[in-house]
Each structure stands twice: as structure tokens, then as C-alpha cells.
Specification:
Blueprint (H helix, E strand, L loop, with lengths): L3 H9 L7 E5 L4 H10 L4 E6 L3 H5 L8 E5 L8 H9 L2 E3 L3 H7 L1 H7 L9 H6 L2 H11 L6 E2 L9 E5 L9 E3 L2 H13 L9 E5 L4 E10 L13 E12 L20 E6 L6 H19 L6 E10 L3 E8 L26 H15 L8
Parallel strand pairs: 1-2, 1-4, 2-3
Antiparallel strand pairs: 5-8, 6-7, 6-8, 9-10, 9-12, 10-11, 12-13
Helix pairs in contact: 2-11, 8-10
The structure holds adenosine-5'-triphosphate.
Adenosine-5'-triphosphate binds next to strand 6, strand 8, strand 10, strand 12 and strand 13.
Length: 366
């Protein structure tokens, strides 16, 4: 794994008066470029050649510079990394960057300074490791079945990695599990039980709150060791299964699909904000213990609210999530922290700008 000291040594050669924010043109990049513009920081868009005209057409979210690639693999080449470093680029990791380049490549071979703590990639990329993080935090999370023969209630079966729900299936008992599991094995989509995780299916309403942790600011909530925690928005994902009613009275098989296709904005009953903030503080504290300095910047809790059990966290995304794209001009929550429109993309740029002014960029980068 590339060490933090190696990255900080690269950063120490940066010209901080010419810092640029860079990311892959995908996922939440328009918001990142738009936010950087609002904070007066130039940005660099790494773009697939064929996608460039489309990205160029969003004139208020134009990066100052495009770096074209034919294939995302080019990003890992020595020359490309050198180019990013010579332009003083801080990379903002988002879900597509991690998916296309791969967590392992980023951890082992990507020498460009990234915003946040890259150790989160290690802790997120394996669902069992991630579960340890949730357990340490002491937040409610779904039961995991290590042995499929013990399945005694409805379960959701997931593949590893951020697949956006693709390929997931539900089973009500062991027999149904094995039928579906064997089917996927025959289609060579999985090879063994190690490729999946079997999780208790939670009935309830999904909420995906987006948080930002600033370690440059004063502590603002009980339980935090340091830093200011902000709730900048909440979304709910739109998955194919959400439209299952359209086929009624039939249950059309194709609708039994958890693939994420978009997001909608939501607010929770105000009294639940306290629960969400308490949970976020616990996740921040356990991250700090497990992989110091823990979380830096944006993260999201993926939760389901069940009236009998409260919020149940089934995943943490330790970076900007696509649901934040709903709020380029701020959200119903960001308004309570900022008098100006504050998207997550802009909040990241603001933090980078402040760190440069405080001579503290090294605290936010790995
Ligand atoms: P991403 O990394 O983009 O979050 P993913 O591949 O990790 O995607 P999940 O977020 O774990 O996928 O799950 C996809 C969807 O499956 C969720 O949005 C939710 O609708 C459903 N889901 C996940 N876990 C559970 C659960 N324990 N009970 C009920 N539904 C669940």
C-alpha cells in the first residue's frame, strides 16, 4: 500500500497557489466542478474522448482543463499520474473512479494525492470488514448469515464491491437461497460463498443522509473527538423494484431488481435528525479508532428506518455519493449551516481552499 508519507512528500512539492481539483467525468463530477468554480478553484476533468462534447455542454460546470483518455486504464500509467502531479491536482474520489480504477489499484499504485483518507477504500471494499466497522460503532445493522443453512427469515444476497444493487437477489429460506445461488454459479457470475454476503432483509423506509466532517473546524457535537459534522442533505435511491406496482396485478420478474437508476430528495421527520447525527458521530469515532485519522470530508450512511427497530445502517460510503447531485444549490439541511448555496462539491472545494489558507492541506489528503 502506498504510504501516507509518500503522498505527503508528493504534496509538499505542489505549488499551493495553483492547486486544482480533479476527478473523472462521471458520477458527481458536474457538481464537483461547479462547486470548485464557485469557490474559485480551477478544476481538471479526466474524460473519455467520446464523452467530452457532452461534458463541455454543461457550461456552468466546465472544468478549466480536460485530460482526455481512450480508456480509464490510462489513468494508472506513469505519464498520466505525472501529468496530474505536475498540475498540482488533488483528486476527489467518487464511486465511479473507485469502480473503474479499482480500490486495489488506488491503494497500491496511484501516487496522486487524493482528498480524504484512502484507507477508507480498504475498509469499505470488503463487506465483512465494513461490517466490523459498523459493529465497532455500535449502530444497528442487519444480521449477517455466515451459513446459508441457518437462514430463518427473508434475506438479501449481495455481491462484493459497489455494484449499485446489480445482481442482488432475495430469498425467504435456505432452499430458495441455494436454488438462486446455484443458478448464478452456473452462469459463472459467482464461484463460491466467498463471493457473496447474506444479509437479513430489513423492511422499512430507506434514507441516505449525506455528511461532511471538517477536521479544520471546532467540534460541534457531543461524542466527536474533533471536527465539525454537517448534515448536508438526504436522498433515497430509485431502484427498479420501486416501480413493481406498475405490473400489478402480476409480479413481473424483471422488476425484482435492486439496480440503482437514480435518486430523489427526501427529508426525515425532524425528531429523527438527532438519531442520524448520533449514528454519524459513532461511525466517525469508530473510523478514527480503526484507521486513524478516520473519515475526512464527505460520507453517507445507507439506512433503513423500521418503526420497531429504528434506523438500521447497512452500509457506509466514505466519499461523495451520487445522491448529493440533487442539491447543486444546497439542500433543505445545508441552509441551516450556510447562507450561501452549499452543495457537497462546493463544500469539498471550500475545505481545500481553507486548508491552503491555513497551511493545513496535508491534514486532508492521503
Ligand atoms: P452502493 O455501493 O452504490 O451503495 P451496493 O452495491 O453496495 O451499492 P447496497 O447499497 O448495499 O448496494 O444495496 C442496494 C440496494 O439494496 C439498497 O439501496 C436497498 O434498496 C437494498 N438493500 C440493501 N441492503 C438491504 C437490506 N439489508 N434489507 C433490505 N434492502 C436492502
Amino acid at each position: 500500500m502506498i504510504s501516507r508519507s509518500e503522498i505527503l512528500s508528493t504534496l509538499s512539492q505542489y505549488n499551493e497557489s495553483d492547486i486544482k481539483i480533479g476527478t473523472l467525468c462521471s458520477h458527481s463530477s458536474l457538481q464537483i466542478f461547479h462547486g470548485a468554480r464557485r469557490e474559485g478553484i480551477p478544476s481538471v476533468g479526466i474524460v473519455l474522448k467520446e464523452n467530452k462534447p457532452y461534458y463541455e455542454s454543461f457550461t456552468n460546470a466546465l472544468p478549466e482543463m480536460f485530460l482526455e483518455v481512450q480508456d480509464y486504464k490510462e489513468i494508472m500509467t506513469d505519464n498520466f499520474q505525472k501529468k496530474l502531479i505536475s498540475e498540482n491536482v488533488i483528486i476527489i474520489p467518487h464511486g465511479s473512479l473507485v469502480e473503474y480504477i479499482g480500490a486495489e489499484n488506488l491503494l497500491e499504485r496511484f501516487r496522486v494525492p487524493m482528498f480524504g483518507n484512502r484507507l477508507t477504500l480498504y475498509w469499505e471494499s470488503d463487506r465483512r470488514r465494513q461490517r466490523r466497522w459498523l459493529k465497532e460503532a455500535g449502530v444497528n445493522s442487519p444480521t449477517i448469515y455466515e451459513n446459508p443453512s441457518n437462514i430463518d427469515k427473508p434475506v438479501i444476497v449481495k455481491l462484493h464491491g459497489a455494484k449499485g444493487g446489480r445482481g442482488y437477489f432475495k430469498a425467504s429460506n435456505s432452499q430458495e437461497f441455494f436454488t438462486k445461488f446455484n443458478e448464478l454459479r452456473m452462469r459463472k457470475l459467482i464461484s463460491s460463498l466467498d463471493d457473496i454476503i447474506i444479509e437479513e432483509f430489513i423492511a422499512g423506509v430507506r434514507y441516505y443522509p449525506h455528511f461532511f466532517l471538517s477536521i479544520l473546524e471546532e467540534k460541534n457535537l457531543p461524542g466527536l473527538d474533533e471536527g465539525r459534522l454537517e448534515l448536508l442533505g438526504i436522498d433515497r435511491r430509485l431502484e427498479v423494484i420501486d416501480e413493481i406496482h406498475r405490473g400489478l396485478p402480476l409480479i413481473i420478474e424483471d422488476y425484482l431488481d435492486y439496480t440503482v437508476t437514480g435518486n430523489v430528495g427526501v427529508v426525515v421527520r425532524e425528531k429523527y435528525l438527532v438519531d442520524l447525527l448520533r449514528y454519524a458521530v459513532r461511525i466517525v469515532s469508530s473510523a478514527r479508532k480503526l484507521f486513524y485519522p478516520g473519515l475526512i470530508g464527505p460520507f453517507c450512511l445507507e439506512t433503513i428506518y423500521n418503526p420497531a427497530r429504528g434506523f438500521i445502517v447497512f452500509e457506509v460510503s466514505a466519499r461523495i455519493v451520487a445522491g448529493t447531485n440533487l442539491y447543486p444549490d444546497g439542500s433543505p439541511y445545508s441552509t441551516y449551516y450556510y447562507d450561501e448555496p452549499m452543495s457537497m462539491g462546493r463544500r469539498i472545494a471550500k475545505e481545500i481552499r481553507r486548508a491552503v489558507n491555513l497551511n493545513s492541506l496535508h491534514k486532508l489528503v492521503y
